């Protein structure tokens, strides 16, 4: 028999005869309908609760008394409108905590009755989502066919172990340590066990038990291991059959393309790339580091990976504490710690690449206010395996001191640098605003202070001029490579911050010290890392450093009154420029002539430009004192120097135009892509995201001359400077005003006007 339903207004309680307060007043609708915002028929039990078979839980809340009307003052104009004197929310604030508590209680009861899971703890990542594309039964045939292709393309087991070892020893820092070394080695052994089976069909059926995202990780590990494996000229190479086999695979370039293509097919989702699990996000980060796809594809991978990471809750991990359980050897706790920390590393690896990419786009997708995940712990991967000795007084896994080198040392410092890059994007803004000298001066001082704090906080093994790790063995051998990669990005950011002051003596002196360090360390890195020694961005940084030193020599010509120390400094600067020229020449000779012809031409033009400018500087320094005695007009000297430099650049342009006239017609005349290499699609590992995404880091940026200037009109003044040259020969921001693409806006060029008044 259905329960008897009461009409609205009837209550379950009756007033006591001795009381004069009357019956309790209840709400018209039941509490469940009010909480779920359903239309209640106001009966007990209501129709909505009866439909859900929970009529016994249908109750009504006691009505909260309304606040008394506030006293009002009569209107001056005599109308009926009245203005309240007291705040209308005076009584509402007292009842709001009670209402919110009741609302939370109702939500918990609803979840319990509806068998819904409770809210997850904020320090835990969500479980991996299944890939619906490969989970569909009709695609099992396609999955087996793909696994057979993978089996046919995989090299021998010993070579797989070698390439995986290269990934863990030489690639973890640039990768952001998104793989846990012991866990990855264990999974790799399982992967190899499947490949050891005698029959191909047995191997395919065994691989069917491994997720496709994990297989994609192993394939991308082979790609990166092949790229980072030492060449014969790099320390660590040994003449073994496996080493020669690696050189054979790398020379053909077919295997790397095949493995990369198979990895992308393994990550196929219902609509686009699948990034709903930790292994899929690890593979996506590997694809971003590999950098062999076109920029638009890499942007899609980055955005998809960020969306997948948010779906797993990696952006809301907060100050996740890794508590050590009382019982030793807890495998579930170890897996939970590893998953949480790897999720944090993955999130920050995506954040760093998103903020670096924002230099080109002018915006970024991840705003600091939209996530609260802490930075990765400064620990080794072995510290996450329980039992561990890295435990604080609260029973949580603790960090190692920053002064101690770990495999996370570079990652932590690179993330600090990424924060500074984001601040520079925020200051610049999405739209270029009219120049405001006062505001831009404050911006410059703020960024310069942040930069100084970053450099001052570097550990001893990453300091400028440090030689720690040059003769080390084991994990310490990664220190010189990590230090060089970090210094390259520091130099790029420092030069961008101070390029407006290069025409002042103080600005040149501050840049010259770091420029000399860049040139000195380039020779060391060539013998330590296969990828670093062949990066286009590394050559660009080398040219920029030499160009800064040449500018310092030309802006401070030698005179008879120079002291011995000044002459010694000039001699050291010349030696460093010559060293940079020789390094560029050696790099050009070591490169295979059949590959990257446009890049070879760019390197040759850089060498020719530095040699011509050095010759011009030597001639000018000898005639400076005599020219100053012959004329008192320094403006004439300025025009003379500018005309000489212009002649050097124009001669290089005419030489290049004669040999590649057809190629130059299709080039963009933007300041940010002055060389042919910018249009031929040279793809290389994105080891320096802070530089590869910086539109101001080109070979000719700091010469500030348009390489392809428009000819002067017939009615133009012969003494007028051509468009894009600016009023000062080496003002690094004058050409940017005419830039039509994503060139770095001149938000830090506040000293340009002051520099233009300085005389040579």
TrEMBL record:
Residues 10-19, 731-743 have a biased composition (Polar residues). SMART domains: GAL4. Keywords: DNA-binding, Nucleus, Transcription, Transcription regulation. One of its GO terms (molecular function) is zinc ion binding. GO terms for biological process: positive regulation of metabolic process. Residues 29-60 form the Zn(2)-C6 fungal-type domain. It comes from the Eukaryota. This is Zn(2)-C6 fungal-type domain-containing protein.
